[in-house]
C-alpha cells in the first residue's frame, strides 16, 4: 500500500517565497512584545533572507561546484 502525496505546483520561485516568508515574520514580530517568540520570528526572517541569498549565489551562471 503506497501513500499518495499532495503535489502542488509552485507559482513563485524559491527566492520569492523565502523573501515573502521573511517579510511576514518581520511584520508579525513588530506587533509582539520583546521576548523569545519575537526573537525566534526575527531569527527565522534572517535565516530566510540568508537562504535566499545563498540560493541566488549557487544558481549563478559563473558558479562551479567544488571538485571532489
TrEMBL record:
The segments labelled Disordered in the record are 1-38
> Record's superkingdom?
Bacteria
Q: What is this protein called?
A: Uncharacterized protein
* UniProt source species: Bradyrhizobium sp. LLZ17
What lineage, starting at the top, does this entry show? Bacteria, Pseudomonadati, Pseudomonadota, Alphaproteobacteria, Hyphomicrobiales
Amino acid at each position: 500500500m503506497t501513500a499518495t502525496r499532495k503535489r502542488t505546483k509552485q507559482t513563485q520561485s524559491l527566492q520569492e517565497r523565502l523573501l515573502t516568508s521573511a517579510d511576514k515574520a518581520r511584520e508579525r514580530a513588530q506587533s509582539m512584545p520583546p521576548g523569545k517568540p519575537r526573537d525566534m520570528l526575527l531569527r527565522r526572517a534572517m535565516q530566510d533572507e540568508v537562504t535566499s541569498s545563498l540560493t541566488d549565489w549557487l544558481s549563478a551562471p559563473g558558479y562551479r561546484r567544488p571538485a571532489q
